[in-house]
TrEMBL record:
Name the UniProt record assigns to this protein: Vacuolar sorting protein Vps3844 C-terminal domain-containing protein
Renumbered residue ranges of the record's region Disordered: 1-20
Domain Vacuolar sorting protein Vps3844 C-terminal: 341-428
InterPro entries: Archenteron_Induction-Rel (IPR053065), Vps3844_C (IPR024382)
């Protein structure tokens, strides 16, 4: 995107509502907000209830564009303005909200010094505490303001999913290549069509040793990483390192990295722990290193403390029509974490790592999504392996009693038959 000028207004191609963007199916899945069915305007209507005495809390998403000039003050924009801004950055046509012009002008003043010719790299990190200090006190280029976790997650889905598929839809030759969980590339380079997905991140030590001058980049002893017990951290670090393995990337290609690392670290160690702060330093330093070669945008979503999570918890109404569906997951124990019932399939997959690939997210009641865990029966050993838990992470093995009983009976019959056969051959019988 090479539009360095300021916004002075927007053309009115189609219907507008007091200066807002024209309505289209992509932006409003239920139609225009003023013409939606009442149950949608009320946010699922009587299908869900929110704790009535709790107020949704405001949030701030920090956006760092590491190639752009930084000022002392960070403009604040709404989620709708942010959607328009990123759509424009990715060359997707969308009408500019009139009320957003002043906000957008403040952002574009610092884009005059932009470096061209680099591949775009978007990094979205959830659950970042003290995000203002992520890059050692460097101010974010702008902040996205909103109210409630649902609105924040909707923006995340818009940015990391809807925009991605819209880009591919508008560029016929482009396709989406997923290399590893949390890392995808939008490209038209046919060589990536047949390239295999990247190997597991468990060989992270080999990757770290191959990075030239890594000790100078991160300025710490690599041995300390061995004490971090969080797989999502190694996945994120491996994804950042493996970016350099991609060759011949052009400025038309787009890299996406999405990670819940800091969500899991915060829940496991706490936001004030040395481990949490150490990982922030590692990831922040390496992203700065990558920004020399990529047009890097970092989006930091705020950490939610336990009280905030409880405020945002959504309780489904019981529904007798769904009794049969609920019975399918009665064996799933309640999570010890703050929620095991998710408001939609996207959040269910994100929070459970797609049920750890051991199940699927299903709608058990209206507006309540949970993991339906799978089981595998081994015919040779008669052992059934089942997965349970809110994220299908608990493995259980059981022996099929019926199979065991019939197998034992079969062996006994064979033994008796063999004995009788041997006795009959000798002309004598013990069965008289």
């Amino acid at each position: 995107m090479e539009n360095h000028g300021f916004y002075h207004g927007s053309s009115n191609h189609g219907h507008t509502n007091e200066g807002s963007c024209p309505v289209n199916a992509f932006e409003h899945p239920f139609g225009h907000p003023d013409h939606r069915p009442r149950r949608h305007r009320l946010g699922f209507g009587n299908r869900l209830r929110r704790n009535s005495n709790k107020k949704e809390k405001p949030f701030e998403i920090l956006v760092f564009e590491l190639d752009y000039k930084n000022f002392d003050q960070s403009p604040k924009i709404s989620t709708e303005t942010a959607k328009y801004y990123f759509s424009k950055e990715l060359n997707i046509h969308q009408e500019c909200p009139i009320e957003s012009i002043d906000q957008l002008n403040k952002i574009y003043k610092r884009k005059l010094s932009r470096k061209n010719g680099k591949t775009k790299l978007f990094i979205s990190l959830h659950g970042v505490a003290d995000a203002q200090e992520f890059f050692y006190g460097v101010k974010p280029n702008f902040l996205i303001e909103g109210i409630g976790m649902k609105q924040m997650l909707r923006f995340d889905v818009y940015f990391n999913r809807k925009l991605v598929y819209k880009i591919i839809e508008l560029n016929i030759k482009s396709f989406l290549k997923r290399f590893r969980r949390g890392f995808k590339l939008i490209t038209s380079n046919e060589k990536y069509q047949t390239e295999a997905n990247w190997e597991s991140s468990f060989n992270i030590w080999d990757k770290l040793n191959k990075v030239p001058n890594l000790n100078l980049i991160l300025n710490f002893d690599l041995g300390h990483i061995r004490f971090i017990n969080e797989k999502s951290f190694f996945d994120l670090l491996a994804n950042l390192i493996d970016i350099n393995d991609l060759e011949e990337l052009s400025q038309d290609e787009i890299l996406y990295i999405l990670s819940p690392t800091f969500v899991f670290l915060g829940e496991k160690y706490g936001h004030d722990s040395l481990t949490y702060k150490f990982v922030k330093r590692i990831i922040g330093d390496y992203i700065v290193y990558l920004s020399h070669n990529y047009d890097t945008t970092v989006i930091l979503y705020p950490a939610m403390n336990p009280k905030d999570k409880e405020d945002e918890k959504i309780q489904p109404f019981p529904n007798d029509d769904n009794a049969n569906r609920r019975s399918l997951i009665e064996h799933i124990p309640q999570s010890s974490s703050y929620v095991s019932c998710f408001i939609n399939e996207e959040i269910c997959k994100f929070k459970t790592s797609n049920c750890n690939s051991k199940g699927i997210c299903v709608e058990t009641t209206s507006g309540c999504w949970q993991c339906l865990c799978s089981s595998v029966f081994n015919e040779e050993t008669s052992i059934t392996t089942s997965w349970s838990g809110f994220d299908c992470s608990t493995e259980e093995q059981s022996l099929d009693r019926n199979a065991f009983s019939w197998s034992s009976l079969g062996y006994i019959i064979r033994i008796l038959g063999g004995i009788k056969f041997l006795i009959d051959i000798s002309g004598e019988s013990i069965f008289y």
